[in-house]
Amino acid sequence: MSLQKTREFILQEKMISLTDKGKIMNLDKEVLGTFGGKVIQIGNTYRIRDLDDTPLLTIHEKVISMRSAYTFYKGGEQDDDKLIGKMKKKIVSVKPKFWFEDPDENKVFTMKGNIFALKYKILKDDKVVAEIHKKLFKSIIKGTYGIKMNPDLDDDSAMLVLGIVIMLHHEKEEDSKRSRRRF
Length: 183
What we know:
Elements: E1 8-13, E2 21-25, E3 31-39, E4 44-50, E5 55-62, E6 69-74, E7 83-89, E8 98-101, E9 107-114, E10 119-124, E11 127-133, E12 144-149, H1 155-182
Antiparallel strand pairs: 1-2, 1-12, 2-3, 3-4, 4-5, 5-6, 6-7, 7-8, 8-9, 9-10, 10-11, 11-12
């Protein structure tokens, strides 16, 4: 079973790491791929890789911006011809609101629920295409959560959803760090 054909995942973050790293597993806890952030000078770059260490998706965090923004590229390079789209956060909102848009700025996915508790749904054309929940797979291990996608979701969209979930997790971690710094 390949990473791109699976529609139910368990993401497990490596607990002792200076960067965001983790494993992508199926329900049998077989490792299908990895994800990781590499700190660079301005922002972070994240990659989802298959077991052969081939990058399937690259995500670059835009740091100097009014809003959180992440640019998604197919494969391992940040070339304009590989651009898939951007995930953005609404600038002013009581509850954080995120969406993913294609290169023409058309909204493709929206996220609803409690993103910082990692319990939410991802919608496409107002239909739920994925659910993310820490308790979805009854995990008691910190940093582990489940993703259940609609089986009809195409491979490219499923890979985007994985990337979106990893970036939302990153947002949750960054928000937690900002909160601790205030006290």
